Amino acid sequence: MDIYREEILDHFKNPRNYGQMKQARVKVRQSNASCGDVMEMSLKIEGGRIKEVRFQGEGCAISIAAGSMLTEMVKGLKVSEVEKLEGKDMIKRLGIKISSGRKKCATLGLEVCQKAIKKTKK
Fold first, then answer.
1. Which helix (H) or strand (E) holds 76?
2. Domain boundaries, the chain
């Protein structure tokens, strides 16, 4: 269990793919009212795959770590694969027990990413 906590702290303190993306094809921002987390995700999609993904925002350790982990998970995947991901996939990736009150923190990044994908299809 400690290995997972260390990984979450590392992703929180040193989030991967963090910051703005120049020339993003799509950018979506969303907040989690219950915790105060705010996340924005930018995507570049080419040939039906996530070529580049970046996120930024403010939030609790779970939210930021999950956003960071998500960017590593989805980069290079087909859009259709990302659309099939579910909240339970993020919770499994975090590797710790998530209380019902923290599920939104763990899944905010995935929700934002999937909304960004939907926006590219409009």
1. none
2. 2-120
Alpha-carbon span 81 to 74, nearest angstrom: 8
* CATH class of residue range 2-120: alpha beta
DSSP assignment of 4-63, as one string? HHHHHHHHHHS-TTBS--TT-SEEEEEEETTTTEEEEEEEEEETTEEEEEEEEEE--HHH
Distance, CA of 32 to CA of 17 (rounded, Å): 21
Structure-token pair, residue 16: 């991967």
Cα–Cα distance, 53 to 69 (Å, whole number): 11
- Walking along the chain (122 residues) 10 residues at a time, the average pLDDT comes out as 80 96 89 90 95 95 96 97 97 92 94 95 78
Residues 11 and 65: beta-carbon distance below 8 Å? yes
Axis crossing angle, helix 61-74 with helix 87-94, rounded to the nearest 10: 110
Q: What is the pTM of this model?
A: 0.93
Cα separation, 4 vs 21, in Å, equals 29
